[in-house]
């Protein structure tokens, strides 16, 4: 009898504690946010993720009534930033923007990371991107066919820059050289911007980048676009051929950017952040910025956290197969 009563008492205490915790969490979420939020960007300022993050963060901040501060944490293809984000308090005040490189491919390339896919909770996909290969303006090839011929005649001598091993730009490079069947040296940087700077200065032969960060340089003829890994031409680069038009349909480079929070972040806070992200990408300001960058906002049915989670799960497996030889 005493044991039965004790068990019932313990169960009642546990239920009361759980209810109290639930109420406390709900009250906390209701007041969220009460101070600025930090959005970690895994690369240097000026790259694709940074440009997208700043456009979205500004409008999310308006929706939430608080400033969202961008913190650029470059290194190891985005892994340095994700490690920092995974250790943050799960209170919604530290979030990160990621992509197929930082949140999927990295687990194959760096198998000893201090975090796993389960270390993060998806908030929302915020952008769909398109990969481009661009060359220094004085590169001798005028189109993709000539470039591939040149590369095959000079194996290992062409240098293509990217934002670091494991980044989405690295995946563009890997997909491109694999589809083209060429031997090129892939040079990692601490972000897309410094890689592009070296291509503009002809210190490397070209870059693998997203349209969001390289379109302007192509239009200003600072570099010359070679091909876009898309099924349709981009409005901002109407003269740049798609991979199929250029004779290399196997090259596909359509990616995504999404927001993540540390594991344990309350669902009510995730819901608030998701609503703010959804509101942000539907504003005229973000739509115009994305249009200028040849970036596309998610469709209405792609905003849910579950959609981003499915993308991560899919791409973890996809790049596990593609990048097995790159594991460190």
From TrEMBL:
<dbReference type="InterPro" id="IPR042100">
    <property type="entry name" value="Bug_dom1"/>
</dbReference>
<comment type="similarity">
    <text>Belongs to the UPF0065 (bug) family.</text>
</comment>
<protein>
    <recommendedName>
        <fullName>ABC transporter substrate-binding protein</fullName>
    </recommendedName>
</protein>
<feature type="signal peptide">
    <location>
        <begin position="1"/>
        <end position="29"/>
    </location>
</feature>
<dbReference type="Pfam" id="PF03401">
    <property type="entry name" value="TctC"/>
</dbReference>
<dbReference type="InterPro" id="IPR005064">
    <property type="entry name" value="BUG"/>
</dbReference>
<keyword id="KW-0732">Signal</keyword>
């Amino acid at each position: 009898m005493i044991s039965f009563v004790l068990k019932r008492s313990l169960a009642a205490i546990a239920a009361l504690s759980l209810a109290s915790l639930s109420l406390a969490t709900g009250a906390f979420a209701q007041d969220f946010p009460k101070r600025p939020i930090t959005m970690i960007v895994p690369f240097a300022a000026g790259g694709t993720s940074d440009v997208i993050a700043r456009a979205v963060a500004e409008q999310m901040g308006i929706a939430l009534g608080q400033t969202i501060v961008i913190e650029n944490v470059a290194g190891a293809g985005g892994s340095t930033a994700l490690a920092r984000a995974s250790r943050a308090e799960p209170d919604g005040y530290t979030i990160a923007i990621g992509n197929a490189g930082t949140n999927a491919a990295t687990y194959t390339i760096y198998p000893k990371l201090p975090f796993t896919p389960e270390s993060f909770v998806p908030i929302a996909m915020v952008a769909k991107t398109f990969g481009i290969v661009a060359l220094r303006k004085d590169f001798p090839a005028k189109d993709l066919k000539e470039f591939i011929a040149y590369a095959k005649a000079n194996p290992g001598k062409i240098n293509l820059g990217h934002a670091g091993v494991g980044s989405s730009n690295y995946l563009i490079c890997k997909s491109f050289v694999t589809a083209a069947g060429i031997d090129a040296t892939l040079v990692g940087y601490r972000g897309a911007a410094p890689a592009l700077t070296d291509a503009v200065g002809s210190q490397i032969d070209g870059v693998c980048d997203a349209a969001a960060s390289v379109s302007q340089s192509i239009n200003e003829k600072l570099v010359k676009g070679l091909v876009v890994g898309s099924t349709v031409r981009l409005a901002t680069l109407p003269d740049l051929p798609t991979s199929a038009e250029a004779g290399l349909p196997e090259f596909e480079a359509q990616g995504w950017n999404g927001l993540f929070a540390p594991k344990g972040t309350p669902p009510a806070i995730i819901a608030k952040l998701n609503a703010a992200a959804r509101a942000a990408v539907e504003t005229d300001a973000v739509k115009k910025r994305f249009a200028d960058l040849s970036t596309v906002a998610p469709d209405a049915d792609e905003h849910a956290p579950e959609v981003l989670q499915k993308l991560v799960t899919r791409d973890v497996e996809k790049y596990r197969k593609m990048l097995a030889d790159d594991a460190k």
